[in-house]
């Protein structure tokens, strides 16, 4: 009998999915890059435009708002056309959003950047709504969650590249003037400094557009099999599919768990900069040096996230995915207690450790939730992508706690109660699905 390892990728009905898997997996790396070059931009835009942390999180609102708004239209588009059409559309919107950074810089205000982020993530929403269910459908149902974890393993590689670019080509090259020094500049000085910093910020995005367009050309030349025509019946009408999905308890609860998981992930990766900056400035560093060192810790966190993704693919051969996810959610909860109550470099190391715990959660929730809804995979995928809205809502809540100036503990420490509560939800979902 064929073992599970050999069934991760198969040739079904005379159609090979190996090359499509490789091409589609490149998209996972691309949207990982977009996510993690964006997280440090909350702090960068706050400095460039002299805004509060809460105002800076509008970057995340625009970014994850695009995911939310485009997920259902993307699902309807894919059902009418094909997975390949969905990926092509996603890459086109992604490239358009990135290119809009150039006129946004020329205008010199914050709002055009928010529009660019929104369009960019409309493209990412198309990509994720398409790629995740397509990976699940490429092989045997028994190995679908492991196969998605394998594809998602290349997502943190892109994320790591995004962090490195953010640290070395954006944060390190921005003006060394801290927030307080910028506040006393007159209008002419501020405008000159702002334009200089925006030029630094836009350059990596301009180069990213070249990479996206190159992958788009490759995709147009590669044959992507139409799974719906070879392995499934024609799709049922849209509204009955929605009703079936929300009558499915594992799926319905999976959407809720995904909302809170993405919120936890983005809060931990966004505010590690604020947390580390406070810790290292307390040791006597300048604000810019503290930010750069914090980003290095963030890169270590992403390396752990990436390595643990491969470890978890192996562990899933022996431990049920839901049970494994519940265990790591519990560990993340304990580590966040260290972040809140211990603080300092110990708290920073705890925050880095949380990333190792998060590595399996997104694809595992995705795989479990869609495990019994293959007929409605595109619509189900849209619901799970819409749950990425948690990455918009919960960072704003955490930023409000930081700006509130809580005094009994450092406000940035207290703010990590938000992801801690999120991991409680993920843990409960994992336990409910491990039986």
Q: What is the name of the CATH topology?
A: Growth Hormone, Chain: A
Order of helices and strands: EEHHHHHHHHHHHHHHHHHHHHHH
Strands, total number: 2
Total of domains = 1
Query: pLDDT under 50 segments (min length 5)?
Result: 1-6, 229-235
What is the class in the CATH system? Mainly Alpha
Q: Over all CA atoms, what is the radius of gyration? A: 21 Å
Mean pLDDT: 83
CATH superfamily: MFS general substrate transporter like domains
Question: What do these coordinates show?
Answer:
With 435 residues, the chain is mainly α. It has a single domain (13-433), classed as MFS general substrate transporter like domains (Growth Hormone, Chain: A). 78% of the residues lie in helices and 1% in strands. It has 22 helices and 2 strands. The protein has helices at 18-38, 41-48, 53-56, 58-80, 83-99, 101-107, 110-136, 144-152, 155-170, 179-183, 187-221, 227-230, 238-246, 249-281, 287-315, 321-341, 344-358, 361-370, 377-386, 390-404, 411-414, 417-433, and strands spanning 11-12, 15-16. Strands 1-2 form a two-stranded antiparallel sheet. A hairpin with a 2-residue loop joins strand 1 and strand 2. Helix 8 runs antiparallel to helix 18 and helix 14 (249-281) runs antiparallel to helix 17. The radius of gyration is 21 Å and the shape is globular. The two termini are 26 Å apart.
């Amino acid at each position: 009998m064929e073992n599970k390892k050999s069934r991760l990728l198969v040739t079904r009905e005379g159609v090979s999915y190996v090359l499509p898997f490789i091409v589609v997996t490149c998209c996972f790396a691309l949207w990982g890059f977009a996510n993690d070059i964006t997280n440090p931009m909350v702090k960068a835009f706050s400095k460039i435009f002299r805004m509060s942390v809460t105002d800076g999180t509008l970057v995340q609102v625009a970014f994850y708002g695009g995911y939310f708004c485009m997920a259902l239209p993307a699902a309807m588009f894919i059902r009418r056309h094909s997975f390949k059409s969905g990926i092509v559309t996603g890459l086109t919107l992604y490239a358009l959003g990135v290119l809009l950074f150039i006129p946004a810089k020329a205008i010199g205000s914050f709002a055009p950047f928010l529009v660019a982020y929104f369009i960019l993530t409309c493209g990412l929403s198309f990509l994720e709504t398409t790629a995740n269910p397509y990976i699940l459908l490429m092989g045997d149902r028994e190995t679908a969650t492991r196969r998605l974890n394998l594809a998602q393993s290349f997502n943190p590689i892109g994320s790591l590249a995004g962090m490195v670019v953010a640290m070395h080509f954006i944060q390190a090259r921005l003006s060394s003037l801290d927030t307080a020094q910028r506040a006393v500049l007159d209008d002419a000085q501020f405008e000159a400094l702002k334009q200089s910093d925006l030029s630094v910020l836009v350059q990596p995005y301009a180069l990213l557009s070249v990479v996206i367009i190159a992958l788009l050309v490759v995709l147009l030349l590669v044959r992507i099999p139409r799974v719906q025509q070879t392995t499934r019946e024609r799709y049922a009408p849209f509204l009955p599919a929605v009703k079936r999905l929300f009558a499915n308890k594992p799926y319905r609860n999976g959407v809720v768990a995904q909302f809170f998981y993405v919120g936890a992930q983005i809060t931990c990766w966004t505010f590690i900069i604020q947390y580390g900056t406070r810790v290292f400035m307390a040791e006597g560093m300048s604000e810019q040096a503290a930010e750069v060192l914090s980003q290095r810790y963030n890169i270590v966190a992403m390396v752990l996230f990436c390595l643990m993704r491969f470890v978890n693919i192996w562990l899933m051969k022996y431990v049920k995915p839901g049970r494994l996810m519940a265990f790591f959610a519990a560990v993340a909860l304990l580590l966040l207690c260290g972040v809140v109550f211990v603080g300092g470099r110990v708290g920073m190391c705890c925050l880095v450790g949380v990333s190792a715990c998060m590595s399996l959660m997104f694809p595992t929730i995705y795989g479990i939730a869609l495990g019994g809804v293959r007929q409605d995979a595109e619509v189900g995928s849209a619901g799970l992508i819409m749950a990425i809205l948690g990455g918009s809502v919960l960072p704003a809540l955490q930023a409000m706690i930081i700006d509130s100036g809580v005094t009994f503990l450092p406000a940035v420490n207290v703010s990590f109660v938000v992801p801690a509560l999120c991991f409680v939800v993920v843990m409960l979902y994992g336990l409910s699905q491990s039986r």
